[in-house]
Amino acid sequence: MSNIDSKIPKGPLAEKWSRHKEAIRVVSPANKRKLDIIVVGTGLAGASAAASLGELGYNVKAFCYQDSPRRAHSIAAQGGINAAKNYQNDNDSVYRLFYDTIKGGDYRAREANTYRLAEVSPNIIDQCVAQGVPFAREYGGTLANRSFGGVLVSRTFYARGQTGQQLLLGAYSALNRQIDAGSVEMYARHEMLDVVLVGGKAHGIVARDLTNGEIKRFGAHAVVLATGGYGNVFFLSTNAMGCNGSAAWQAYKRGAYFSNPCYVQIHPTCIPVHGSQQSKLTLMSESLRNDGRVWAPKKKEDAERLRKGEISPIDIKDEDRDFYLERRYPSYGNLVPRDVASRAAKERCDAGFGVNAEGKAVFLDFKYAIERLGRETIEKRYGNLFQMYEKITDVNPYENPMQIFPAIHYAMGGIWVDYNLMTSIPGLYAIGEANFSDHGANRLGASALMQGLADGYFILPYTIGDYLAGEIMVPRIETNTPEFEEAEKNVTSRLEKLYNIKGGQPVDYFHKKLGHIMWEYVGMSRNEEGLKKAIEEIAELKKEFWSNVRIPGEMNNINPELEKAGRLADFIDIGDLMARDALNRNESCGGHFREESVTEDGEAKRNDEIGCYASAWEFQGEDKEPVMHREELVFENVKLTQRSYK
Amino acid sequence: MADKILKKIYVKVWRQNNPSDKGRFETYEVENVSQGSSFLEMIDILNDQLIREGKDPIAFDHDCREGICGMCSMYINGHAHGPDSEITTCQLHMRKFEDGETITVEPWRAGAFPVIKDLIVDRTAFDKIQQAGGYVSVNTGGVPDGNTIPIAQVDAEEAMDAAACIGCGACVATCKNSSAMLFVAAKVSQFAKLPQGKVEAKRRAKAMVAKMDELGFGGCTNTGACELACPKNISISHIARLNREYLKAKFSD
Lengths: 646, 253
Fold this sequence. Notes:
The complex is a heterodimer.
Chain A: H1 16-23, H2 29-32, E1 36-40, H3 44-56, E2 59-63, E3 81-82, H4 94-104, H5 111-131, E4 156-157, H6 163-181, E5 184-187, E6 190-198, E7 201-209, E8 215-219, E9 222-225, H7 246-253, E10 258-259, E11 264-270, E12 293-297, H8 300-307, E13 321-322, H9 324-328, H10 338-353, E14 362-365, H11 367-373, H12 375-393, E15 402-411, E16 414-415, E17 428-430, H13 448-468, H14 482-499, H15 507-522, H16 528-548, H17 560-584, H18 608-611, E18 613-618, E19 627-632
Chain B: E1 5-15, E2 24-34, H1 39-52, E3 75-76, E4 79-80, E5 102-106, E6 115-117, E7 120-121, H2 124-131, H3 153-163, H4 170-174, H5 181-192, H6 201-214, H7 225-229, H8 237-251
Parallel strand pairs in B: 1-5
Antiparallel strand pairs in B: 1-2, 3-4, 3-5, 6-7
Helix pairs in contact in B: 2-6, 3-5, 5-6, 5-8, 6-8
């Protein structure tokens, strides 16, 4: 059944969304009161959606695994949010933002979705300003902007290096207002463990209360997944420790298609890995590349002496420094997109020019900016980031260049959705990082926050109405039905199975092993042989995990190991699907770099003849090979060209 | 950055199985900890050890591990988030400790933050205070263009100073009265510096203070410990602003 219907409205690109909004149905206020919506996840997408739906008059139940919605990982986004405001008069426009995003995503996103994202972006800024988000301002009181990777205009709005925090706190405050008003019921420290389908439609979820292990049923007329990405499949990533792909994976097992799982973004400016005890990686905002210059030594002997700690980077003269991004990409320089900057750093390190003990780091140097602008200006722009760097590494970045290396950051792939953000299961929606639709094979800086809030504030609240208008005769969903019974049993028996293995190794032991396989074979570059090996090794690891994991503690108490085990079981399966998808995609594009497909000068080579599709994987049952459907991507408004930042 | 190894340290940690359990300290030995590891990574190592020994690992709250989510609530050697300034526990590194040292770890202690298990406390009270008025009442859509609300740069910066609060609760845990004044002040102060918050300013100050009192947080006696413990360096000058806002609201009743 390859009936992939993306439901993209007909008509000119710039009019699709407004025409669609006019055509879709709305629910009367009297009927909204009778309709229940579940929102899982309360980051930028989930909190903004839950608040907006509550304002509209629906009954909303919101869930998050953290102790408070304010802790969702959106809070960690540092650099900024894009919007086509053209406040700087530098010739920005909705079309230009759309074009940069499509091009940045290596022409693997949907035109219509991406255009809509650019179109609603100015509203997001207005909304956040009205909520009291303290964006940076010019002396005259107007909003300030800066530029970000992959872009030649200044369209990024920011609140110091804590933009994600401030946007999330804005959405959190809107959510709090609705909780106080009684239109949203908040369930913190709850983890969704299954989606319940009745007659093929999403009618609720089963969740575990993480404080006491109680399994609970919740019914609703529609379910929205805003559960973020699956980057933690690599163990070491910039994601928060609890970020997981489990909700998306349960949806997949219930019939929602999973799209482009192999697209994972590698962020170029992370603090490098050191030693073997590390649990996660810390990102340094991409905005640093506005003023920091990236370099590696020109001479191998300098690199070697740096690795041994015999010399310090400030001993290396300017003429012996290779500013390789400026050298290779003169027009974008240090502001090339993330995938390009990441691969260039790996190329230098692989060639023997890495600068830390492990040989896996390059420099991000502020010496030149401090000379040009003064330390005070740099401190004002990036002070908290510099402080964070010093706390972690014990090195003062005002005096010594920072060391950086690429790390796993963001999942462009996710649950397949149509133009209405509905999955292939009626009544089940996916928004923000959890879905696949807007970023293609690579995400430009400052576009994730934009998508989360666009989906939550301005898209889902309209499109879900179109579906719910057809559900107004459905009475409140009862949870004492066979479908809920079956889902609860499914959840309980899986937890018991994991708990009763009583093997010899803790969960993290397996997670690190999985991370190693993924980074080695499904990481920054991939090839056929490696991907096949990954699939085999993941299958072995799966067997070992399911026979030898040890979960201590009690089922009916706080049990982080049990939570981690369930998530890891899903990560193992997600890792397998990522490798399959990467193997299947016989081209290089964005974050997906196949060694078999490169241009003469070593850049990623797309193949539009075979690659112009979004994969949509369909679950066939445990241990059965999944089936891939293709959604052909049609480009009517942009010409597909080799991406060049030279 | 060659990291030294701490050959052996002792971790004296609060164990409490559930809210009604009395709780007690247990001491564990941990070997070979890199000084480049974070404090939470040290607990990961200890937990790995406990699991292998068939014991219950230490339950603790943590998530982003980059100093911004505010989840990692631990009292270490008598300091909220440990003996270093302007950091969360995840940003505390083992280079701050000596070989052979005994490190004492406790959960936040405050009546309004009951212990759930070991080092995990319930900070729902903070959400409830925010729900009482820590927002600007504006619905999605129908708002003016951002640049039609000009804000002086200095005001935006001061609002941002206050808005940087991560809601971790270190201020409450450090205060001898378990007062939530710094937390409440940060939010009230953010909106007091912005035109958007003005319309509801009086209602907000009164409602948030009333909620804070109702939930069992103590009063502020201006000892300033909260400011010293705050990982985001939120200034007690915001408490002064909260007091002004509150008094203004009271006098206009």
